[in-house]
Amino acid sequence: MTQQVPSTEPELAGVRNFRDVGGLPTVDGRRVRHGVLFRSGHLAHATAEDAEFLASLGLHTIFDFRNAADQKLEGPDVELAGVRNVNLPLTDPADGAEFWKMVRDGDVEQLRGILADGKAADRMITSYRAIIKERTAEHSQVLHALAEDSIPALMHCAAGKDRAGLSIAVTLLALGVEREAILADYLESNAKHRRYKVHRSGSSDSAYSPEVMELLSPLFDARAEYLTAAIETIEDTWGGVDTYLERGLGVAPETRERLRERLLD
User: Fold this and answer.
1) pLDDT digits (tens, 9 = 90+) for 192-201
2) Alpha helices in 108-178 (DSSP H)
3) For residues 198 and 14, what is the distance between their CA atoms, to the nearest angstrom?
4) How many angstroms separate the CA atoms of 207 and 210, rounded?
5) Which one of 237, 247, 257, 265 is most buried, counting C-beta atoms within 10 A?
6) What does the alpha-carbon distance between residue 265 and residue 259 come to, in Å, rounded to a whole number?
7) Residue 187 φ then ψ, to 5°
8) Is 146 helix (H, G, I), strand (E, B) or coil?
């Protein structure tokens, strides 16, 4: 399987899951240019040193896929001078305030009821499929922005895994990146230093018991089956990536070629 070799991966103190997507290979032998497309978790807790590093990237646009509830929980992104911030909320992969309240506050029996026996993974798969089918306008906006003026760009959500992961995957599909390389980049979010920190109410051992963490893990994992379900949804709904881009997202061939000129070596 193709592995990503990032051009730079700083240790950011307050930003999880940051990486340059540069270096990924396309099916026709080109590579994603370094320094033009980045991904991460939210920037709300960025330190002054983190902000200094992010500012050094020369970013044009930050795409924030969090919704209002995420922003209320985590806070707004750090302000970077001269950088455009675009908020495009996407359906949360574990949607619903009641559901997330249960994740934070529920005891082990309650969590078993909503997450055990494959229910957590099924919820994630359903959400990935829904984002692809229902968020075509948002993904279209991102691709058109990148083709026009919005690079270098950083895409993030809360953990930088699901909503940002899908938006990065859609962009890489438009660029013609190899499917195995897209999956390998997606799975990088599982690295221990990248993972979103699970927030549970209370500090007792039972709040973070091995069983609780195992029940929650499908929500916080990047799993191949999730991204595969999204790509299968493209195939099932539109018959293939080319038709999805052109009819589903309204990305004309000339726009796609402009994307490739701007983002590929």
Assistant:
1) 778 766 766 6
2) 108-115, 119-134, 136-148, 163-175
3) 15
4) 9
5) 237
6) 11
7) -70, -15
8) helix
- Asked if residues 41 and 16 have their Cβ atoms less than 8 Å apart, the reply is yes
Cα(265)–Cα(252) distance, rounded to whole angstroms?
21
User: What is the pTM for the complete model shown?
Assistant: 0.90
Q: 187: Cβ–Cβ under 8 A, 6 or more apart, which residues?
A: 222, 224
The DSSP-derived string for 161-191 is: SSHHHHHHHHHHHHHTB-HHHHHHHHHGGGS
**C-alpha dist (Å) from residue 155 to 109, 123, 132, 171, 221:** 36, 23, 16, 11, 19
3-state helix, strand, coil in the chain (%, to 5): 50, 10, 40
Q: Which domains does the chain possess?
A: 19-263 (3.90.190.10)
Rounded mean pLDDT for each run of 10 residues along the chain, 265 residues in total = 47 93 98 98 96 97 92 90 95 62 81 93 94 97 98 95 97 98 96 72 68 89 97 98 98 98 98
Residue length of the chain = 265
Query: Whole-angstrom Cα distance, residue 9 to residue 11?
Result: 7
